[in-house]
Amino acid sequence: MCAPLKSLRRVLPVIRHHHERMDGSGYPDGLRGETIPLQARILQVVDIYDALTTDRPYRGALPPEDALEILFTEAGNGWLDASVVWKFSQMCRHAECFPLRGRTMLASYYA
Question: Which residues, in sequence order, are CB contacts of 107 under 8 Å at separation 6+?
């Protein structure tokens, strides 16, 4: 869907691979470990955190600490880059840079 947009050409690998898993069980290409672009591994962690900490029609938002625990569990399962999860958790815990406002981070950006 994004491929025809010239302005997104440099981020296409990030978009394409943010559902890959470190153990190779993700999609669309079954990449594993360091073959997954770092930016895609970062987007994956942020995307999951945002999904967990915002209200959904089928469940309420989780508290940030619960979301971080899930991220660490998924890293332990070999799905997420543990170093990215650790760094992200440090940013969340020490900088408190991700306040919850009842909307997604993206929606808050445009508010």
Answer: none
Q: What is the CA radius of gyration of the chain?
A: 15
67 confidence band (pLDDT: 50, 70, 90)? very high
Residue 54 is encoded by which pair of tokens?
């915002």
Amino acid at 20: E
First to last CA, the chain: 26
pLDDT (tens digit, 9 = 90+) per residue, 74-96?
999 999 999 999 999 998 887 65
Extract the tokens encoding 66. Answer: 């619960």
Task: Tokens for 48, please give them.
Answer: 């999951």
Q: Which two tokens stand for residue 76?
A: 């332990």
Q: Alpha carbon 10 to chain centroid distance?
A: 19
